[in-house]
Amino acid sequence: MSPLSRRAFAGAALASLLVACGGPGTTTGSSTSPPPSVSEASVPPPAKSVAALGRSVPVGLKIPAIGVDTSVMQLGLAADGTVEVPPIAAHDRAGWYRHSPTPGQTGPSVILGHVTVGSYGDGVFRHLGELNRGDKVVARLENGKSAVFAVTAVQTVAKADFPTDEVYGDVDRPELRLITCGGPRTGDGYQDNVIVFATLST
Question: Which domain of life, per UniProt (predicted)?
Fold first, then answer.
């Protein structure tokens, strides 16, 4: 993505996540806000070179450490310019933003999910913040292959301090971003975002 489209996507994603996690909300910050400092413990370690995969749409996502095994839908942009989110439904599933790289391609592939789904209870990413460095994330692809990622960092950040550059910035290797809401819940929804960073491992 170009810097301009990436910035627009980041703002749209931030706005949509505020209403994606079980309650109404309003935007509380700008995608142009400076990103928060990243602690040394959360800086991804150097990864050995792994060859990028060809483009293939993700159809499933498995995260054994937190019991996630879900189908993946495709998400685009809503009429108001915000990123679409999966529908609030009993059988909640994750959604891949189709204008990001597919999992395994060079660049940051972005998958979003709910933390709660209204009266239906827990969302598919309810336990995302419990992941640890080294945990595996497996994206099942339309071509029958799988892209296996290893978690490098998990961050919980205030929505107003969303780290745009770290999440959406260009990278020279295949990476994955998993995003949901988190932190304290208020009448307007959740105050924070939980972001998982992972790199292609096999």
Answer: Bacteria
